[in-house]
């Protein structure tokens, strides 16, 4: 037994954590070997993040034992965990944006002169430059964090962690904001770290990534430990079954819908320097997919149509009539709704109740001019929350307390209640677990069947192909190609063709 | 399992209870303590005195609650009071019989000042702190310009009644004004669309915009209302001191902000209630009154008030931390 124990770098046994109202972790375990990439999977709310926060000293377990390097530990705070060698790269990075890369890397360990009185900037910058070079980052250490891309910031965080002797690095959805190239780069770094004997705990919803870079996987469900498997010995359906507790036969239950009139027609829409000459139309009952790389201008096009951003020229024809949209209020009044990519920034008022969140865009339509009929209003809101199967102990709870998937359903409920003719969905399933994804796909089909036109922006190729009747590809602010469902069904390698267009091919 | 679920639900409710009523409980303890410790505190007259003393700060604090929930702050209150004071003074000095006109003009003037604050803040998307830090100088200066630096000594007995008179010889009018404004504020914030929009703007401005809320209009209305309430408070204060003075009202904004914060509003915006603010106002009133009755020197009173504000903020942070875990 003692032999076996020494093989594990981090061992968490019988961990239980109770939060007010929920049992977040119920006697779970995790064993990470030296130098392995260990995937941690499970739906949102399964308890992955809670366990990782315990490992990184952010939270304390109610019960259970943590062994690090064979010795029992109990980190009081993140600083102790980092000193011991456990570093966590957060899903939402929080570097100090107005400090330089070097300052961020050496935060709290600045090389000093005059017995710690002054920071030795020269030495700090030199050392930082050397470290950056070692990890293939061709960038000056004196650049401020705010000027970096998210991928670069993440890299700096990882570098910071491993430079200071991290033995284990926890990565929480590290690729959620990265494009393909950046993801490759991250994978290379992970491989390097692994070679140096550093263990990595990798939290992700993306099966392909797990299959590619991880050695073993541990699955949680509803705060319970389900099992640990060698990646080489488990296939995708089996893994999904472990996560959701049932088999999802076909993730995309696309239902064909008879298409109606043209709802929205856009002609030559241009916002200088952002997108040019965008022309397309979408019909009632149709799901129109927008594919392309992150930053190609897809979200910006939709924001202009929704009135969040201005546009310079071009025409928007709404149900056959030209329409100028100057504000979101006008767009909503006409029946356009948009579920934005950034849920927390544009979708929710996190500190307010679900009632208030769902009601927010719908108050105007109430009969009374000034006063709110709370009783009638709340009854209607409950109806929509139920329709979209929002899971919450009550609709009076604050939006911040919900999981990502449920937050997304709250946003969908709020827009469904506005009964729009056109629903724009920007990355509707980003960061959402597979069960909730499935539900959102079903809802999309249901909306389309009810005669709504849907525009879906997605960077997940499978999702675009699985859900769309038609796919438009955007490359550097211009439309570059169109694919129909008939082509989709022919089984040709559409994914490759779309990617080719997205990269600017065949121009 | 069901047993466990029930248990956790109960403990959750307790946490919610402390969060909602923590400050109220402290207030109740203080009142109970004073009821036992001080014979004077028990009298009806003293209760009326307390309410009378808090009425001016209370009226301002109700307006400030809207401002703070909307994610803003207004530091120009003191200067607005000065404008209200000299406007009333100027009108009454010219014709002591023009009481109604003087009062209405003061409220309208302050309403316009608030509108100006709101316009600058929302049109140029500037920090309310910085904007009102600047405008308070403008308004204070304007008050001196209007009065030419002098005080107007007021002789109108009718005007004196506003701040010093009592309904049926028992209840000061200013208490009735405070209760009315608190009630209006309560209805506006919790029962109207406008109130919901104020919460949404303060909770998350981006989401409010993306949900079709006319942020510009809501902010204008909120700062205008702040102005009108301050104008009314300024009139009452002027009536009490019986003079229109350009130097009056310094520091009133801070007392109002203190009451709002003690009452559980978050300076980050999005959170707060009128009943909470009313408790905050009462708390400050009871502390002042209680310490006076116990013979505590006014120097120490300031220190105690300061600690209570800190305590309220710490309590708020502790609660929100526990929630986020």
Structure write-up:
The complex is a heterodimer of chains A (507) and B (325). Chain A is α/β, with parallel strands linked by helices. Chain A has 19 helices and 22 strands. In chain A, strand 13 (262-271) and strand 14 (275-283) form a beta hairpin. The longest helix of chain A is centred in the middle third of the chain and has 16 residues, at 180-195. Chain A is globular, with a radius of gyration of 25 Å. By secondary structure, chain B is mostly helical. Chain B is 78% helix and 2% strand. Chain B is built from 13 helices and four strands. Chain B has helices spanning 2-37, 44-69, 77-94, 99-123, 128-147, 157-164, 173-191, 193-203, 205-210, 215-241, 252-262, 274-293, 298-324; strands at 152-153, 166-167, 171-172, 243-244. In chain B, strand 2 (166-167) and strand 3 form a beta hairpin. In chain B, helix 2 runs parallel beside helix 7 (173-191). The model of chain B is unreliable at 1-11 (pLDDT under 50). The interface between A and B is large, with 40 and 32 residues.
